[in-house]
Amino acid sequence: MKLTSEMWKGRCYMRLSLGEDDAGRDILSFLRAELGLSSAKIRSVKFDPEGILLDGKRVTVRERVKAGQCLRILQSDSSNRELRLLPTEMPLDILYEDKNFLFVNKPSGVVCHPSQGHFADSLANGVQAYWNRRDPESRVHLVGRLDKETSGIVSIAKNGVAARQLSEQRREGRLKKTYFALVRGCPQPLCGEIALPMEYVRDPEREGMFVMKAADASRGKAAVTHYRVFESFGGVSLCRVRIDTGRTHQIRFHMASFGHPLLGDRLYGTADDASDGKNEHRALCSGIKRTALHAGRLEFAHPFSGEELVLNAGLPEDMLTVCRELHPRGELPVLL
Predict the structure, then answer these.
(1) Three-state secondary-structure class, residue 29
(2) Which of 84, 112, 190, 218 has the fewest Cβ atoms within 10 angstroms?
(3) Is the bond preceding residue 189 a cis peptide, omega within 30 degrees?
């Protein structure tokens, strides 16, 4: 079986070219075992007149296939239009787009999906407006997300099948996201791993807020963060960070627990400050008004073409400004 994605008669399909080993299987087994489709998605394609096509003809999920046949499964989610987001026009910094995916460089201050107080100004609302103009068959499927203050690359699939394919890579660690952080001080050693279980608890000092704290392995969730110091200057370090687990606030919490909180982090950034270091920390943070964290690089294999893709989003201006102001020669770091 060979799996690809294609546009056919103006709609996006998953195309399976069937081989000798596939002969005799019913289509339902491909939908569940090979494509991992949910029951809701299977119902959706079953009732679309062009949802399941074998050699261009509509068939049921009980149809058994033969070697050499072509099976097409509709990828678009046009049957779920009632679930569409409220479209809101906003500028999008698009890094890559094809018929299945969109990758954008999200600015700080924008939430990824609608939430309390942000029902119409999230990134998802902006993407919906963009697709209403260009690709009305598509729906917004966020594959992972970034906090409001974190800038950088966000992955968005245009249909449920593509989202599942990319999510599987993410779960298996084949989709690799690299973050860049400005932290206070210089971590030692310069390259290392932080493995500290975490748990989400109510913050006793902030009403209605929840924060992460360290936990023993029996109670908390495992969390592993890898860091590497690019360069240290003016009391801060620019670090490259990768995570094996995607816990809430993981990078912020781990770096703060290690004694090197991120600049601008008002939640974890002052808890471990020595009294004589608070003024220094405030001065370092004066040039940045949010947590200094940026998702700047994404590496993955395209689920349908197999092409190895590397997407880069350079440091945003606020983080660059801190680097310029604190570096003794006013130099900007080269991210590798």
Answers:
(1) helix
(2) 218
(3) yes
The answer to whether the CB of 119 falls within 8 A of the CB of 157 is no
Of 226, 230, 250, residue with least CA distance to 186: 230
Let me know: does 241 contact 284? Beta carbons within 8 Å. no
- How far is it, in rounded angstroms, from Cα 86 to Cα 89? 10
Q: Residue 141 pairs with which residues in a beta bridge?
A: 157
Give the integer Cα–Cα distance in Å for 55 and 71. 6
142 contacts 124 by C-beta, under 8 angstroms: yes
The Cβ-side half-sphere exposure at 73, using a 13 Å CA radius, reads 27
Helices and strands (H, E) in the chain, number of each type: 7, 17
- Residue owning tokens 């008669």: 9
pLDDT band at 150 (very low <50, low <70, confident <90, very high): very high
- 236 DSSP β-pair partners: 184, 233
Identify the burial level of 46 via C-beta atoms within 10 angstroms of its C-beta, where 0-12 means exposed, 13-18 middle and 19 or more buried: middle
**More confident site: 191 or 276:** 191
Q: Which one is catalytic: 135, 147, 272, 273?
A: 147
Q: How far apart are CA 83 and CA 103, in angstroms?
A: 22
Residue 147 annotated to the active site: yes
Q: Tokens 């294609």 label which residue?
A: 6
Query: Cβ(139)–Cβ(158) under 8 Å?
Result: yes
- Torsions phi, psi for 214 (to 5 deg): -70, 150
Euclidean distance between the first and the last CA atom of the chain, given in angstroms as a whole number = 38
pLDDT for position 82: 39
Name the token pair of 298. Answer: 């994404």
Higher pLDDT, 187 or 220: 187
Tell me the whole-structure pTM to 2 decimals.
0.78
